[in-house]
Amino acid sequence: MGAYILRRLMLVLPTLFGIMLINFALTQFVPGGPIEQIIARVQGEADSTRNITGGADAGQGQGMEDSTYQGARGISPDLLAQLEVQMGFARIACEDGFTGTPDLKDPACTSEKISATERFFTMMGNYLRFDFGTSFFKNKSVVELVIDKLPVSISLGLWSTLLAYLISIPLGIRKAVKDGTAFDTWTSAAIIVAYAIPTLVFAVLLMVLFAGGSFLSIFPARGLTSDDWHTLSLTGKAVDYLWHIVLPTVAITLSSFVTLTLLTKNSFLDEINKQYVMTARAKGLTERRVLYGHVFRNAMLIVIAGFPGLFLSVLFSGSLIIETVFSLDGLGLLGYQAAVERDYPLVFGSLYAFGLISLVIGIVSDITYTLVDPRIDFEKRAG
């Protein structure tokens, strides 16, 4: 196991490097960039996604002349040069022998473009030191922004994962016991239908039915707390929070419990057909005692060991849609806004952090599997 963990750890940095390189390269061909966003804001243009035909660097500032910034009429070349320097697309270069403070206002200094290759390796060097920089448009550090939004996403991920386990484990056990019966057939059909419903459609349906739409008005339609939350007692705050989290949690759980249900069923079926179960039945033990006294402990090991991976999957997969529909200010919405605004420090910083977390959680999940079930040997599979 030690050799397997070492191999996985050695692959973390190359994998992370590849993820960052591919995404960084893609941004070189995406129309628009942070400077175009600023120009649009200065000129009062609301449509920041208009067709911008930049140069080869497509919004990164590499090798661009001032004329390549479409819609930059009225913006002085000096201001554009300052923006490029401020956002790391260019540096200030002064004449040899210059002893003053580098400043574009000085005739002896000019802006010098920084190549995309140099910017990428500089960025990766900073990220290795966990220096993610400052957001272009929010004027806050990337780490601070992520920490501010993290509680909302963790709330969704944690409650959704717990709800998925509460539904999937009893349902999976029941399906295993009733394998091949009508119950197993119609529940499988219901699971397939549930899995096929898009998260967005289900979230909107919940709002229409239970959040003041055309039918009932039981749950709030937006936010995690009420406006007067700070004035409530401790118990009142807890109830108010749970009241707000119901619909988002149910909406995001729809797709996550399906896989877990089938995993639980198959795990129980595998254990039920083993020799020790037949021996226990032969000794006269009741079916309930056999199921929950012997089978449950062994069958649930692999299900419980998958908790970290499922939590991470729920945390990152459906958060954008749910946060948008229910007006929750979390990581999903933050990432979407950063991508639309071309806020590259926030985009790449969060991508690096989440990529690293995902890779580490994957290793932890594998270790957990081997701890709870010694029959699993990743080294033999790798060989």
UniProtKB/TrEMBL annotation:
<keyword id="KW-1133">Transmembrane helix</keyword>
<keyword id="KW-0813">Transport</keyword>
<dbReference type="Pfam" id="PF00528">
    <property type="entry name" value="BPD_transp_1"/>
</dbReference>
<feature type="transmembrane region" description="Helical">
    <location>
        <begin position="299"/>
        <end position="322"/>
    </location>
</feature>
<keyword id="KW-1003">Cell membrane</keyword>
<feature type="transmembrane region" description="Helical">
    <location>
        <begin position="241"/>
        <end position="264"/>
    </location>
</feature>
<feature type="transmembrane region" description="Helical">
    <location>
        <begin position="150"/>
        <end position="171"/>
    </location>
</feature>
<feature type="transmembrane region" description="Helical">
    <location>
        <begin position="351"/>
        <end position="372"/>
    </location>
</feature>
<keyword id="KW-0472">Membrane</keyword>
<dbReference type="GO" id="GO:0055085">
    <property type="term" value="P:transmembrane transport"/>
</dbReference>
<keyword id="KW-0812">Transmembrane</keyword>
<dbReference type="InterPro" id="IPR000515">
    <property type="entry name" value="MetI-like"/>
</dbReference>
<dbReference type="GO" id="GO:0005886">
    <property type="term" value="C:plasma membrane"/>
</dbReference>
<dbReference type="InterPro" id="IPR035906">
    <property type="entry name" value="MetI-like_sf"/>
</dbReference>
<feature type="domain" description="ABC transmembrane type-1">
    <location>
        <begin position="150"/>
        <end position="369"/>
    </location>
</feature>
<dbReference type="GO" id="GO:0042884">
    <property type="term" value="P:microcin transport"/>
</dbReference>
<feature type="transmembrane region" description="Helical">
    <location>
        <begin position="192"/>
        <end position="221"/>
    </location>
</feature>
<protein>
    <submittedName>
        <fullName>Microcin C transport system permease protein</fullName>
    </submittedName>
</protein>
<comment type="similarity">
    <text>Belongs to the binding-protein-dependent transport system permease family.</text>
</comment>
